[in-house]
Amino acid sequence: MVWHRATEEVDVIGSNPCIQAVVETPWYEGEPLCPWSVADYKPFSHIQLDDEMTDLEVGLIFAQLV
Questions:
Q1: Which residue, among 25, 19, 20, 65, has the nearest Cα to 45 in the 3D structure?
Q2: How far apart are CA 66 and CA 55, in angstroms?
Q3: pTM score > 0.70 for this model?
Q4: Which uninterrupted H or E stretch holds 2?
Q5: What pairs with residue 11 in β-bridges?
Q6: pLDDT tens-place string over residues 3-14
Q7: How wide is the angle at C-alpha 21 spanned by C-alphas 17 and 22, nearest 5°?
Q8: What are phi and psi of 65, to 5 degrees?
């Protein structure tokens, strides 16, 4: 993928674009409001959804969704 500064266009010829599913991590003050353990990520950061996620990451995503 090549970005051309002069035209502000992106050339994707010859590249393999990839779409990845992510969830924004929740924001909370102090301790998480959920009764289960969650991963320690900065608020409003993104966590990629894939098959190699830890149980704590799954807990964090579940906390954001509920």
A1: 25
A2: 16
A3: no
A4: strand 2-4
A5: 2
A6: 666 676 766 666
A7: 125
A8: -75, -30
With CA atoms as reference, report the closest residue to 32 among 54, 11, 14, 59. 59
Q: Give Cβ neighbours of residue 65 (< 8 Å, ≥ 6 apart).
A: 23
Q: Which amino acid is residue 5, in one-letter code?
A: R
DSSP assignment string, 6-65: TTTEEE-TT-------EEEPP--SSS-SSSS------TT-EEE--TT--HHHHHHHHHHH
CA 42 – CA 38 distance, rounded (Å): 12
Q: pLDDT-based confidence at 31, cuts 50/70/90? A: confident
**Token code pair at residue 54:** 């830890």
Angle at 64 between CA 59 and CA 66, to 5 degrees: 95
